[in-house]
Specification:
Blueprint lengths: L8 E5 L2 H11 L1 H17 L4 H9 L2 H7 L1 H14 L3 H8 L1 H12 L9 E6 L10 E9 L6 E7 L6 E6 L6 E4 L3 E7 L13 H10 L3 H10 L6 E7 L3 E8 L2 E5 L5 E4 L6 H6 L11 H15 L5 H8 L14 E2 L5 E11 L4 E6 L8 E4 L4 H6 L19
Parallel strand pairs: 1-4
Antiparallel strand pairs: 2-3, 2-11, 3-13, 4-5, 5-6, 6-7, 7-8, 8-9, 9-10, 12-13, 13-14, 14-15
GO molecular function, one term: acyltransferase activity
InterPro entries: C45_proenzyme-like, Peptidase_C45, Peptidase_C45_hydrolase
Keywords: Acyltransferase, Transferase
């Protein structure tokens, strides 16, 4: 890997195809590296370029029907980056494509992209606003193939999202104060049917004008595999949705917090499906508890530095909340790729690449909507800034 540097900020605007083209031009090198990472992984599984095209093409009609504007944006990204559309679809459907490839090849699962996420609600935070964050565990090479997107939209709230280069969205928030992070889950219902790949669902949630609509798109959209998606609103609330491909199970805050790793927690979910992911992520069974323990040890009201401290936890290293790069079977290098902290009422996101070996955070900002400030719990400070106005009912 190269020297650790902050994730570049890519600002895009305009209609879907145009903003995609801008994205592709501005992040060309990282997009090509990102697509190459997964193309190489499929080659190692025995798939040549023609078969990779076949796997990717299976998703495209469904995506085009569900979100034609996002397909247009991907077409623009491909044009700007000077690569084929299938490479961009692969980046945005890599979880699903890789899993289908492994099933077809009869190959064992590789380590999934695990995560530990948390939301702190206003009743437990020092300044009375929501703090929402995540450690993203995946391939260490992604420290060189990820970006932060600032999407300036004319048809809804602007978006600030961390994502793999070429991706439409991963973790982030919008100008209406809605934040989303996501965690790997696995169940016996996975990959029976073809669903909408996860980044498209996260992007649609971030396009929502209202918290209820963000929850709706996550809860009801058919998925190929299970996933956990944690959503919060700057108005002062959060819901965690443990999603099977065809059903969602809500988890609500306890004592002003939600913490989730990579195993199912909902008793209702566990009465209806089988947990199948623990063989790959047994450390999930203590990672969420470790974050809760460190937060509670802080005593009193909590701030973003307290959540950072919890996410830096190294109990049971190397299989810990914040993991240094670790060689895995098959030659993959696994690590906590990024620590992401969002304070939507302030319009601020902080990210540290490879935080186990680098504690330098870069700060990214988004101008928030006036109404979002007015609704945000504790957001009485008029110096926080002003963004554009639009009606939540429009």
């Amino acid at each position: 890997m190269a020297e650790i540097t902050p994730f570049p900020l890519i600002e895009i605007s305009g209609p879907p195809r145009e903003r995609g083209r801008l994205y592709g031009e501005k992040a060309r090198e990282r997009i090509r590296l990102s697509a190459g990472l997964y193309t190489s992984q499929l080659h190692r599984l025995g798939f040549d370029d023609a078969n990779i095209e076949r796997l990717v093409a299976a998703f495209l009609p469904r995506i085009r029907d569900w979100a034609p504007d996002l397909v247009a944006e991907m077409e623009g990204i491909a044009e700007g980056a000077g690569i084929g559309l299938s490479a961009i679809v692969l980046v945005n459907a890599r979880t699903e494509v890789l899993q289908l490839a492994r099933l077809e090849a009869g190959a064992a699962d590789e380590e999934p992209d695990g995560c530990t996420g948390a939301v702190l609600l206003p009743e437990v935070t020092r300044d009375g606003t929501v703090i929402h964050g995540q450690n993203w565990d995946w391939r260490a090479e992604c420290a060189d193939t990820s970006v932060v997107l600032r999407i300036l939209r004319d048809d809804g709230p602007d978006i600030l999202t961390f994502t793999e280069a070429g991706g439409l969205a991963r973790s982030g928030f919008n100008a209406a104060g809605i934040t989303i992070t996501a965690n790997y889950l696995e169940s016996d219902r996975d990959y029976r049917e073809m669903g909408i790949p996860l980044p498209f669902i996260r992007r649609r949630a971030l396009e929502a004008r209202h918290f209820a609509m963000a929850l709706r798109v996550v809860a009801i959209t058919p998925k190929s595999g299970s996933n956990n998606m944690m959503l919060s609103t700057a108005e002062g609330y959060a819901v965690d949705l443990e999603c099977a491909p065809d059903e969602a199970f809500p988890i609500y805050p306890q004592d002003g917090m939600i913490v989730h790793a990579n195993h199912w927690q909902s008793a209702v979910a566990l009465s209806k499906l089988k947990e199948t992911g623990l063989a790959n992520v047994p450390d999930s069974l203590y990672r969420d508890h470790r974050v809760l323990t460190v937060l509670r040890e802080s005593g009193g009201k909590l701030g973003v530095e307290d959540l950072k401290r919890a996410f830096f936890d190294d109990f049971a290293a190397p299989f810990c909340v914040c993991r240094a790069p670790l060689a895995k079977e098959g030659g993959n290098l696994s690590a906590t790729v990024a620590m992401i902290l969002c304070e939507p009422a302030k319009g601020v996101m902080e990210i540290a690449p490879l935080p186990a070996i680098n504690r330098t955070f870069a700060r990214y900002e988004l101008a928030m909507d006036d109404d979002a400030f007015a609704r945000a719990a504790g957001a009485a400070d008029e110096t926080l800034g002003r963004g554009k106005r639009w009606s939540a009912s429009s």
